[in-house]
Fold:
Amino acid sequence: MFARSAVRAVAQPSSRLFSSSAARNFKVAVLGAGGGIGQPLSLLLKQDPLVTSLSLYDIRGAPGVAADVGHVDTASEVNGYAADQLDQALEGVKVVVIPAGVPRKPGMTRDDLFNTNASIVRDLAAAVAKSAPEAHILVISNPVNSTVPIVANTLEKADVFDPRRLFGVTTLDVVRATRFLAGVTDAKPSDTPVTVVGGHSGPTIVPILSQANGGKSVTGEKLDALVHRIQFGGDEVVKAKDGAGSATLSMAYAGAKFTNSLLRGLNGEKGVITPTFVKSPLYADQGVDFFASNVELGVDGVEKIHPIGELTAEEQKLLEAAIPELKKNIEKGKNFV
Ligand SMILES: NC(=O)c1ccc[n+]([C@@H]2O[C@H](COP(=O)([O-])OP(=O)(O)OC[C@H]3O[C@@H](n4cnc5c(N)ncnc54)[C@H](O)[C@@H]3O)[C@@H](O)[C@H]2O)c1
Structure:
């Protein structure tokens, strides 16, 4: 699943791939490693050749997951940490991935999770600010549109916020859009990558299908149905799991995929570009200072935020619907800290 270049980077170090400042020693922590996402995510990260060390933390179960994953025959070392060992888990960590918190049940929106997850994410961010202030933080916990501003404000309060190092993981929307478009056009998913912008909840998820291969061939009711499926694909999983949670396996895949992209950028690889929800100037004049768009990842994290490019009239309408909702979600997060 990982780009061949990542494997090549380890197997055949090439000066072209590495900048002199790039560290090739990537310790990655998963906070919430005992959960539905955390377990398969830890397994996938164990298979990433760019990860040299894995720190697995949860308020329950992480040492067991670490003992299990640690037997996989790849080079990285794995350590598990119990509830009272968060500071140790974060020692020397370069990348922190956060899937801690409760998932949705049928009928819930992501915003319904705010009351529980906001404080979990704030407290974990405060611990990162203290023990690994230079780490890159990848937020999976929902509602991402609010939890990312919560992390930003928590780091700001601790005087360690660097917007180049904070990411909301929206890769699952990209993965779904790509898969669903391929299903409609009968193409291979690898030939139809889709850029998804905005945020990570229902109407704030804006797929730019017109910029994808074959995307313009989908029109009318078929287009409306495809957009709706991309925006509300998460509900399909929540409904099918019938009370047992939301997407975990596809999310673990998406989380590992985004982590690998970031590590490739940190490792000095050029041209690593993927959508992610970051502090962004694109719609800041409309009060939306966090926004997902294509971002180039480099040795310091966010290297370049790409504009969203040309939109069709339908996509423009989707974007206009997303902005006020995003603004509300972002403000709610900021006001919490
Ligand atoms: N970004 C996305 O696209 C996306 C997709 C799916 C789910 N999610 C979100 O990911 C989160 C996790 O989902 P899940 O299905 O893995 O849930 P889960 O309940 O299976 O696992 C969550 C884990 O977090 C742990 N946890 C709770 N509080 C913690 C704390 N303070 N420190 C460390 N760990 C803590 C729990 O013990 C549990 O093991 C949810 O908020 C869900 O909405 C995001």
Notes: The two ends are 37 Å apart (CA to CA). Residues 31-32, 34-38, 58-60, 99-104, 113, 117, 120, 124, 140-142, 144, 169, 172, 200, 245-248, 251 surround nicotinamide-adenine-dinucleotide (CB under 6 Å). Residues 1-23 have pLDDT under 50 and may be disordered.
